[in-house]
Design a protein that fits this description.
The chain is mainly alpha-helical. 65% of the residues lie in helices and 0% in strands. The protein is globular, with a radius of gyration of 19 Å. Bound molecules: zinc ion (3 copies).
Length: 249
């Protein structure tokens, strides 16, 4: 995949289009309601800090929390927003977050923070900045998964760390663009040799035994639930693996 194809897949995805439209609307509103520049700046700054922290907590404790598959009501969502992505990290259909889960979460966290600091203009600025951040996260995540080799050291590094989350041990390297909170909580590992290989890296703990007890995700998967390397999907899709080196480790 060339960078051009990647940019095309990105900007034509419905959730990305929605983030851009909502982001523009929020930024226009924050300018229209503009009153206190210092407080608005503070709202944007706090949103910048809160976003990666929120993502870290959600990814580690909710998406990898091993409770969403235990009820019929949450199994569908968990399957869509994280299980399928770990089962087949190359599947474009589940590469991006689902708008109906991302947008309410981001809005519920950032809008009150922005409002408390800078009133309605602060709320609009914080949410608008959250949409920009989300586009950035999704774009980097696209680069990490699609068959594209970045040239910049920083992009190479975050791609390697995210690939180890998918192919070596999922209980670490939770950040996407930012591994600050992994450092703080001690979940960052630079090399595969720093952490043992996880048996649940592709099934997230939703093993065959768990599938007997909690059948919903398995039923929805139509027999594709597996514990091993996702090459069974790649053969079906005819895709090539972008992360050969990290998968061999
Ligand atoms: Zn991923
Ligand atoms: Zn994950
Ligand atoms: Zn692969």
């Amino acid at each position: 995949m060339s960078l051009r194809d990647l940019v095309y897949s990105f900007f034509t995805y419905y959730a990305v289009v929605a983030y851009i439209l909502i982001g523009i609307t929020c930024i226009v509103l924050s300018v229209k309601w503009f009153d206190a520049p210092v407080r608005m700046g503070a709202a944007v700054l706090l949103a910048t800090v809160a976003y990666p922290f929120g993502w870290y907590l959600i990814h580690r404790y909710i998406l990898h929390g091993r409770f969403l598959y235990k009820s019929a009501a949450t199994a569908v969502t968990w399957k869509r927003i994280h299980f399928d992505h770990h089962q087949d990290p190359h599947d474009l259909r589940v590469l991006f977050g689902a708008l109906h889960t991302t947008l309410p979460t981001i809005a519920l966290v950032l809008t009150p923070i922005g409002y408390l600091i800078g009133g309605r203009s602060g709320a609009a600025a914080a949410l608008g900045w959250g949409m920009v951040t989300t586009c950035f996260y999704e774009f980097c995540h696209c680069i990490q998964h699609l068959n594209y080799a970045p040239q910049q050291k920083w992009l190479k590094d975050i791609k390697r760390l995210h690939m180890s989350h998918h192919f070596h041990n999922e209980q670490g390297n939770y950040g996407i663009t930012n591994y600050f909170w992994d450092r703080v909580f001690g979940t960052l590992y630079e090399k595969a040799s720093d952490k043992p290989k996880s048996a649940t890296v592709f099934n997230l703990g939703y093993t065959a035994e768990e599938a007997v007890k909690y059948p919903w995700v398995d039923k929805l998967s139509g027999g594709t639930r597996g514990d091993g390397h996702p090459r069974r999907f790649q053969q079906a899709e005819g895709l090539s693996a972008p992360e050969v080196t990290s998968e061999q480790s």
